[in-house]
Amino acid sequence: MIEVKGLTKKFADHVVLDNLNFSVRQGEILGLLGPNGAGKTTTMKILTGFWPATEGQVTIAGQDLDHHALDLKKRLGYLPEHVPLYDDMKVYEYLRFVAEVREIEKEEILARIKDVSAKCGLQKVIGQTMAELSKGYRQRVGLAQAIIHNPDILILDEPTTGLDPNQIVEIRELIKTIGQHKTIIFSTHILAEASATCDRVLIINQGKIVGEGTPAELTAKLSGSASLQVKVKGPQATVLSAIQALPQVATVQAQSVDSAEVTTYAITVQPGQEIKEELSKLIINNNWGLLELSQTQASLEDVFRQLTK
Amino acid sequence: MKNPHYISTVFSLFKKELMSYFNSPIAYIFIGIFLVVGNWLFFSPFFLAGQASLRSYFMLLPWVLLFLAPAITMRLWSEEKQSGTIEFLLTLPVTNWQVVWAKFLSAFIFMFLSLLLSLTLPITVSYLGDLDVGPVIGGYVGGGLLGAAYLALGLFISSLTRNQIIAFIVALAVCFGLFMLSSEMVLISLPQWLANIVNSLGVGSHFYNLARGVIDTKDIIYYFSFTGLFLWLNVKVLELRNWR
């Protein structure tokens, strides 16, 4: 759906984006993750046709952005960072204006406004001036204007900043619901959000892509393999060799001896393997006592810190 | 036009611009001041002169427009830049020309409305005496054209800054400079051949030609090209997108 090749953006001599290459498949939710100032917003401003790129090419649905900007803008919905709105307009006036410019048929405009205000929960504030709206409502108005023309592609720049936890969950759910039929790119610096919402994550730092993959892949890549801690009541030597004999186990060692009977073992598993079930069966079948079983896995947070350090 | 929606999009943008004038009390204050100042400046010497003519009004009109036009245009781009709405506006499926047209036309209609409301002056005068209609028509046509030129210039200057006050002061200064080009004060200090050129470049001389009741295509072409030039420059500024 979206192809980005060699995208570079410079302001004077300051390089903001340095040779970015990525693509987004149709129907995918792609998260742009990175610390503040990494180049997420710049990338989005280029994708929406607001800024020209210094170098590189953006192709959307097979059309070059430079030459088909007007056609492509019609297929795009965009929620800019900080949600700039015309403060002196009322919510419905604003939505009607967007609908008109988006070339929605006159007879259909009212229905569309009703539809998006229901989806985004705007019914209560529809007659209010936008200057009066709270941050949460502004965000929703921003989202409503981005989806009013039912675009194929949505570009959302930090759609959840400044919202309270309940609103964040609501907006995320909304994005997921909308995302079932659309291609979505959204940026965030909150890791939990990326792993909760995205199909795929792109980690950007200082204008470069430093990591790419599904949230699970990224965490797996970093830790390589999962590691387990298991506390077993049973004869140490026998337990040790029995665990070692399991095919999924890479290494095992006695970590600490709590008493004569009870030992904690640290196990690392072969990459991509699951072991918890077999391990517990093994222990129980041998009539040992399974006292504790826990898995320690690198989170996306660790990946992020490691990649953007 | 390739796009059948071209005009209707300009119209939608235009409505939004016009709405933003009347959504705030500024528009009403503004029209009020324009009318009070215009009437006062006209009527205070009117009864002394004892002539049923609007000459003194049209002599002053360029000066009133000099303040009026930059005040109308100062926020048109600066505010969009300051609040960030420009990003939203320019990522809509619109061309730079469409937006510039919409902003210019809304400013023009707003100014035109103020001018229309001052029609009470010629109507009053025509009751008081025998009014020569020619110069009145010429004066209003000239006022509209001169206003359009000032507005195009002010709009262009507004696109260069995110600060409304700067936009106002710079536009005022430039309009004033261009107006003064055709004033006696400047012309008298120049050699004859240069004075003629400078006089025809200044925005004032063409207005006074029209206000005499002589509607000459030369003057009309002058204002059209002046307005067109600055609208074009405005589009170029948008194309550059060199602001942060």
From TrEMBL, chain A:
PROSITE patterns assigned to the protein according to its UniProt record, in alphabetical order: ABC_TRANSPORTER_2
Gene3D superfamilies: P-loop containing nucleotide triphosphate hydrolases
Top-level taxon of the source organism: Bacteria
Pfam families, A to Z: ABC_tran
Family: Belongs to the ABC transporter superfamily.
PANTHER family: ABC TRANSPORTER ATP-BINDING PROTEIN, ABC TRANSPORTER ATP-BINDING PROTEIN NATA
Protein name as catalogued: ABC transporter related protein
